[in-house]
Known about the structure:
The protein is an alpha+beta fold. It is about 25% helix and about 20% strand.
Amino acid sequence: xxxxxxxxxxxxxxxxxxxxxxxxxxxxxxxxxxxxxxxxxxxxxxxxxxxxxxxxxxxxxxxxxxxxxxxxxxxxxxxxxxxxxxxxxxxxxxxxxxxxxxxxxxxxxxxxxxxxxxxxxxxxxxxxxxxxxxxxxxxxxxxxxxxxxxxxxxxxxxxxxxxxxxxxxxxxxxxx
Length: 176
């Protein structure tokens, strides 16, 4: 996917939709990317990851596509995630050849299945894009804290929690 084909995204907050007690769903997606950065950089050092999303008329997320880039303007599809599934236990996250993640699928499932616990996308368009740069230690710490609080909010069983200290198994030990 060339950079010129990206979908514009408005990062300005829309105050009429903000609820200070809820974290923005787009921010949670950024956290999920940061915490699973090594999975996006498995084959080469990615400089950026894009999360492309589609929304329903009620602004809930329906589908996600995760793209990684090692060279400006060139994007490789890493995985896709669908919100609903006809089969309850069907894997909603599908990875392209050679890509995988132990933690990203359950994080996405939790976020997508409990969207009402988070502030929806402020955009009223049906498609959006979130760009995430390689996280440093401060961003990883903030992402772990945000994800742990989000999992607490939806009362996910403690065996799946992202602890504030540890994070997921494969969180980057980034030197940036």
